[in-house]
Design goal:
497 residues; mainly alpha; Growth Hormone, Chain: A; 24 helices; 75% helix; sugar transport; MFS_STP/MST-like_plant; membrane; monosaccharide transmembrane transporter activity
């Protein structure tokens, strides 16, 4: 039987909804970029971490260990613990209130975090601000990718969802520019950096008042007429009956599931759950956040001066943004698997090259010569480039499109919380790992990249062009490994009309 064709056209309102919602990613990216730059600013260290500042002043201090401090790492990583916990509350909010109010709450928490962080006078205010940031990230990262996936036409679903990751990369780049500018604003430049997080949060807050709720969320909450009207609005056409019937069918099945988290523990839910969690773990163990969080610190360790290290971070941020456009243009053409596998090869070469150079040429108290330092920056850019068109955006896209409606918000909550958990682990451990493992840390991440490639080859199906409410029949039950999780009796409840 031929696949149904759902009509749609891109109207200015639809495009604006995509962009405004994607500001949830810009909010997240700004925080990723801003924290690493702030922790490299002397004024910030003098006020909150004077011991580290004193350690920096000793030229003979171990290159790999001068930033090794658990409290400094907690400043960065506390956000991700808060996001981990809040993602489960965000899942409930998405179900009960809808995607749109959850996005609004995300922006509110983030604005509060920006205000408290910028005004911080003592350590507890700084950490509490980070926790509020974290709650905002947890709510935003739960609701925004789901919203984008649910309102996107099937033939553009990958590209629309990747707008979230594009916004993340733009946020990182803007944060690097802000840090580069505020690093000379003594003694309160860091306050402007942290307070600047309020800007994307304000835009997201305003956007959440303009965008429509997703049709699936409205129908799921028994508001069918509003759901059909919303579907017509986001498709830009009146002929939406076929797609609306599919949403109704998915919602009818979802309504029979009273405990979605319990449903996730059933073997039929195992394929998308394993894929979703594994992608988040692998995304962090590529080493990307270790580089993006601490890029200024990393480049200072390599012998760059403070301004030069921030400038190098701006360069990597620009590469990150530009390369994400590659994913937008290719993900719905070449598919998810090819992008992931190509990137594994490129990231492996980059990480191994960096590891070899640092192992052979960077002593504990010296610095790299300019030529080798330039090579390291190029390899970092090559690594960031491949991540930006693969594991970065697809780590959010694939989990948002593979769960059936009845477990979609619960399953995605596990994806978000897994991402935050392992982001926390890397953020909390990276500087200590760099101190103890030295250049071998890059070989550690390289080994994980090999594992990731094997995982894609064996266990990850292609989901390009498959309607999100047809994944069970057309993807999981046809996969050579995952089809074993289904039998005729157990899978009847998953079948679409």
């Amino acid at each position: 039987m031929a696949d149904p064709v759902f009509k749609s056209k891109i109207t200015p309102y639809v495009f604006a909804s995509w962009i405004l919602a994607a500001f949830g990613g810009l909010m997240f990216g700004y925080d990723i970029g801003i924290s690493g730059g702030v922790t490299g600013m002397d004024d910030f260290l003098i006020k909150f971490f004077p011991r580290i500042y004193e350690r920096k002043l000793h030229a003979a201090e171990n290159n790999y260990c001068k930033y090794d401090d658990q409290m400094l790492q907690l400043f960065t990583s506390s956000l991700y613990l808060a996001a981990l916990v809040s993602s489960f509350f965000a899942s409930k909010a998405c179900n009960v209130l809808g995607r749109k109010p959850t996005i609004l709450m995300a922006s509110t928490f983030f604005m509060a975090g920006a205000a408290l962080s910028a005004a911080a006078q003592v350590g507890w205010m700084l950490i509490l601000g980070r926790i509020l940031f974290g709650v905002g990230v947890g709510f935003g990262n739960e609701a925004v990718p789901l919203f984008l996936t649910e309102i996107a036409p099937v033939h553009l679903r990958g590209a629309v969802n990747i707008l979230f990751q594009l916004a993340v990369t733009i946020g990182i780049f803007i944060a690097n520019l802000v840090n580069y500018g505020t690093s000379t604003m003594h003694p309160n430049g860091w306050r402007f950096s942290l307070g600047g997080a309020a800007v994307p949060a304000v835009v997201l807050f305003a956007g959440s008042l303009i965008i429509t709720e997703s049709p699936a969320s409205l129908v799921e909450r028994k508001r069918e007429e509003e759901g059909k009207a919303a579907l017509k609005k986001i498709r830009g056409v009146d002929e939406v009956d076929a797609e609306f019937e599919e949403i109704l069918s998915a919602c009818e099945i979802a309504s029979k599931i009273k405990q979605p988290f319990k449903k996730l523990m059933k073997k039929q839910s195992l394929p998308p759950l394993v894929i979703a969690v594994a992608l988040q773990v692998f995304q962090q163990f590529t080493g990307i956040n270790a580089i993006m969080f601490y890029a200024p610190v990393l480049f200072q360790t390599l012998g760059f001066k403070s301004d030069a290290s921030l400038l190098s971070s701006v360069i990597t941020g620009l590469v990150n943004v530009g390369s994400t456009f590659v994913a937008i243009f290719l993900v719905d053409k070449v598919g998810r698997r090819k992008l992931l596998l190509q990137a594994c090869c490129q990231m492996l070469i980059s990480q191994v090259t960096i590891g070899v150079i640092l192992h052979l040429k960077l002593s504990e108290t010296g610095s790299l010569d300019k030529g080798l330092a330039a090579v390291v920056v190029v390899m970092v850019c090559t690594f960031v480039m491949s991540f930006a068109w693969s594991w970065g955006p697809l780590g959010w896209l694939i989990p948002s499109e593979t769960f059936p409606l009845e477990t979609r918000t619960a399953g995605f909550a596990f994806a978000v919380s897994s991402n935050m958990l392992f982001t926390f682990v890397i953020a909390q451990m990276f500087l200590s790992m760099m101190c103890h493992m030295k250049a071998y840390i890059f070989f550690f991440f390289s080994a994980w990249i090999v594992v990731m490639g094997l995982f894609v080859i064996v266990l990850l199906p292609e989901t390009k062009g498959i309607p999100i409410d047809s994944m069970v029949e057309r993807v999981w039950k046809k996969h050579p490994v995952w089809k074993n999780c289904f039998d005729d009796d157990d899978s009847k409840e998953y079948e679409m009309a």
